[in-house]
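Internal tracking record. Fields below are filled automatically when a chain is submitted to the structure queue. Please do not edit lines marked as system-generated. If the sequence contains nonstandard residues, flag them in the REMARKS field before resubmitting.
Queue: standard
Priority: normal
Entity type: single polypeptide chain
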Amino acid sequence: MARPDRHEQNGDEQHGNEHGDEPYDGDHRDRQDTDPRPDNELAGTDTEVGELVGRLTEPAELEPAERRRLLGRLARTIGAGGRKARAEGVGRGRFLADLFLNIAPRIPIRDLHTLSEHHHGLTGEQLADDLIRTAQKATMTVGAIGGALAAAEFAAPPLLLSAPAQLVAETIVVAAIEVKLLAELHEVYGVRVEGTGTQRAIAFTAAWSKQRGIDPLAPASVTLALGAATKTALRNRLMRTLGRHLTTLGPFLTGAVAGGALNRAATKKLGEAIRTDLRGKLPPPPERGKLGR
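SYSTEM-GENERATED OUTPUT FOLLOWS
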């Protein structure tokens, strides 16, 4: 991650049901896996996916045609990696989680000064409002593009074979946008995480999997971010997000409308939950300087 920060908050995975989510019952391989890194053979896929996701989550607006092109390329790349993973006996939940953990450090995260510059000098709550609106628009666009692609596929049935890879691509991009939002809200509220770029990226990813903010007073949370429980929570969260994108496979443009609306609502809910969480985690004003503000 270009500029991620924070410690993972020790929220519990069992709170998923509070947000209307049911836990994903992955296959036996998924539940047994505790290795935090993907197989070396998938490194090439991770690199290309990371570059594409980085471009799709950059602050600059992309032309619709370019966004569609990048999303299509991402789907093809993920599809190739997924076929290889299946041949090696890797479950889909594990594949998604491993892939996302490796691309997370490439998600472009801005510091507070850059955020304010990019959002017309806004600060504080107004800046947080704008970040959430921007992320909502971005995830809504991904869902709408996915639905439009699916509509074209329904007009040409043989192309439906590519639908699973398309859904995974949408899932990865939406997750990256939401992790980016979560990390940048931590910047806005002055909640800082120390560590390497990779450590901070994983801490933000772990926090996203629980839909909670990071506790700045729990330094052990970064070192625990790659534990088995966290990987299970990440797999579950990614599979829930993937399930949300099944709506984009509706006929004609119904999938585009439904996919965009569901993404927008979910991203708004996440943003509001995180900012509420962060407000409660801020230390007294005299101590905020210790958190990098």
